[in-house]
Amino acid sequence: MRKDFLSIHDLSLYEFTKLIDLAKEVKAKPDRFHKKLKRKILAMIFQKPSLRTRMTFEVGMLQLGGEAVYLAPSDIQLGSREGVYDIGKNLERWVDGIMIRTFAHQNVIDLGQSCKIPVINGLTDLLHPCQAMADFLTLYETNKNLKSFKLAYVGDGNNVCHSLMFAAAKAGAKMAVATPAGYGPNPEIVRLAAEDGQDTGYSLTLTQDPAEAASGADAVYTDVWASMGQEAEKESRAKLFAPYQVNAGLMAKAKPEAVFMHCLPAHREEEVTSEVLDSRQSIVYDQAENRLHAQKAIMCALMGDAKDHDD
Ligand code: CP
Ligand code: NVA
Questions:
Q1: In terms of CB atoms within 10 Å, which end of the chain has fewer, N or C?
Q2: Which of 44, 45, 51, 133, when mutated, tests ligand 1's pocket best, judged by the most ligand atoms within 8 Å of its CB?
């Protein structure tokens, strides 16, 4: 594995598959990994709020025999009190790895380059790779092969959408993304994912029609319409995105056995109705659980010694 985990695009197909396999093993046999990161310490830098990311990294480190130190947005004051370069140069003297949730994606790249210890991307404005790893772990649990799988993403072409595209490209899944005009995924990410997925069976359909994206889908995924940092646009986006709500009508366009996915937190009755979120088709809490297992695998791969487990 390379030193940092910043984007699924950076992973080779082999590394992606290995990480998914390791996550399955960590989930199935957690006791075999309970000393894997013994006495190791992870610093967790948060510039944005979190429930899942904080809990799963902290609990994950404890379950692997290590510890995590939480640094709240007001602690470091990244960018105003100190820049990423100096933060990395300090942290590498004390801890064994850094997880960072920040705004500009360049921050995670610069942090990785500033220090010798592994840096893990816990969400930027551009990408949310840990989320997509957990999501694909969740999909692989019920589908051995995702080659003819259709994942429909409906809503904002944001960080979660981008990382799902990179994961779909590795997995060889088909993706259809429906967004309002002007809110589609970043063209550079579209291009890179297409490159990654050239020989895997990946394809991407971009549309403004949610019904077209959901039609015949195996999974329908959505995320909030205004991401963290876009709070000022919340009202204008709510109007624009209203036709993109995932409700029973839209789910009916997908396959009858299709699953509903969301990275959470969800805004009930906005991007998704409670009827869908709480339905039998919804696997959102499996996704949330799998954040723990996927990230334990990522931390083992990056921060562990060569030996994978106890025996
Ligand atoms: N899905 C996710 O990253 O959740 P948090 O923002 O609560 O960490
Ligand atoms: N797109 C959302 C994801 C939250 C986990 C955000 O960036 O706020």
A1: C
A2: 51
